[in-house]
Write a structure and sequence with these properties.
The protein is mostly helical. Helices cover 59% and strands 8% of the residues. It contains eleven helices and four strands, in the order E-E-E-E-H-H-H-H-H-H-H-H-H-H-H. It has a two-stranded antiparallel ribbon. A two-stranded antiparallel ribbon has the order 2-3.
Length: 264
Amino acid sequence: MPRDTVLFLVLAVVGMYVEHNTLRDGRFLLCRAMSGVSVIGMICLSLLSGCGRFMQSDSDKGVSLYQQGNYLGAANSFQKALEKQPGDADCFYNLGATYHQQSKLFGRAGDLQTAEQYYHLCLARNQNHAACQRGLAVLLVETGRTGDAATQLEQWAAREPANPEPKIELARLCHEQGDNLDAENYLIDAVSIDPDNPRALVALGQIRESSGDTQQALANYSKALELDRNQPTVAAKVATLSTSGPPPVIAVAPPAGGSPYSPR
């Protein structure tokens, strides 16, 4: 199988606990894996296969073990995949994602440190690895290094001016710091780069709804729903804003490739 072959798998994620922060509790889009929070039933995960059948098999097995909650087994499988292709950025990311989730569930500082090391190894090989950029930013915020997370994302945005994802993540950080104006500006930039990005549109709708601009929020939500019909909370929000009857329903942006640090 060619090295650059991409296999897309839809996996049921078991044991993944994700907090979707919304404007109801004064927070933004950040999806942080946490124990004891809502379970995501199904999310799309992309598995980037590397160097052929053996690595594909190890990666597949690692993802399967991860979704079963067997993080030690998943880490072992991803390590075998890495041994077959030393220095592969996706393998480093998968290992980082596994240790990151394991640290959330078991509270082991060593796992968190290992996750950060693997994220940095991934970015050393591919500094524009989107999932790893997102995962590391989440880890930095979780460990009280918001400034470092912002610097990292700003550098990513500077390297990839045509990529909306750094702007979306920067908007999240700004909102968490109470800076809704800059958050909105980052999201406007993201939408100008990619007018058909559902994540950016839903996030922008949330910001505008919170500021009282319900008509523009409705327009953002409606377009996001046109682009991706599989968003029940956004559909409910569109229905709510279109009428004066039901109580407010919080719209949740679709995840970008699963949780911030799910194996690929």
